[in-house]
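Technical appendix A lists one of the benchmark inputs used to test multi-chain prediction within the project. The record comprises two sequence entries:
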Amino acid sequence: MPDWQALVRSQLDGLALQPHERAEVIEELAAHLEETFEGARRQGFAEQDAAQRRLSEVKDWRALRRRIQTARTMENIMTNRVKQFWLPSLLTLLLSMGLLALIQIFGPHPWMVARHSGWSLVAPVAVVYIPWLLSLPLIGAMGAYLSNRAGGSQRAVFSSTVFPVLPYLVFFLVALPVIAILNDRVAHNIMFASLFIGLFACVLAPGAALLAGGFLIQLFHARRLTSRRVVSS
Amino acid sequence: MIGAGIKRGTAELAVLSILEEGPLHGYEMARRIEEQTKGALRFTLAALYPMLYRMEQRRWIRGSWETSDNGRRRRCYRLTPAGREKLSPLRQEWSELFQALRRLKKVAHA
């Protein structure tokens, strides 16, 4: 009788699962082949024929390896991605935008960044909501905390923290230049000055505020890990 | 003979239905499905296990290692409460599909 475990192990070589999981899969598939082989033998097939028929159940072992890997890991990846990135990111976005809307309706007047000409302001003008900027470290900290708690990587934590400014960044880096290029009625001298002021007011300043909160959480997390290591050693 | 596309769609229903009768390991599951469908549904190893693992990830079934009387270790699958919940609407969907097909004259005469 063939050594089914050795055969399955060699065919599924490179199956990227945890060692214990891989061993389980190999044992299970080998057991299946063994039972079908014995069933064929009971039906009167010669050993060689029975083994050959069982092996013909898998036409492409590489494809099987890929499908097993996808089946056993895909759902986890999806769940982790939601917990580590999407949930914290969308929460930070929702909170920061909600807060901005509230401040715009009820809050104090914004600080207008512009060049003065006599009593009037001259474009380009940036509108900066100071209370909003002051609240962003808290929101960034929340995003970093949630992503950290779910075991997110450094990249996931960083992305979750600065997620609220990403739509603005895309707008200033992609949409605005495209408008400036395509629309010949736009005064380009104003547009490019606006681009830099807008980038500062809507991306750099809020991004820095969010990161400040996120950084504190990362620092706290790193210190806690160090103290745990010290205690356990 | 039933075509491959329809077979794929019914495979999950077949597994959930057969596990409703009680816990089974992969080989026995495939054997019983083939027997009860008179060979219309036949699972090869390559088709069965990726599907079982996918269904396990979705928490519809749960696998655990058991040792039989002859000392063999087998991974037995049983239906979870989530799988039981899934079974009813799946049955309903397929029943509606078959009824709809029956209503088509051409299919009915096929």
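Chain B touches chain A at residues 25-27, 31, 44-46, 48-51, 53-54, 57-58, 65, 72-75 (CB under 8 Å). The two ends of chain B are 13 Å apart (CA to CA). Comparable benchmark entries are summarised in Table A2.
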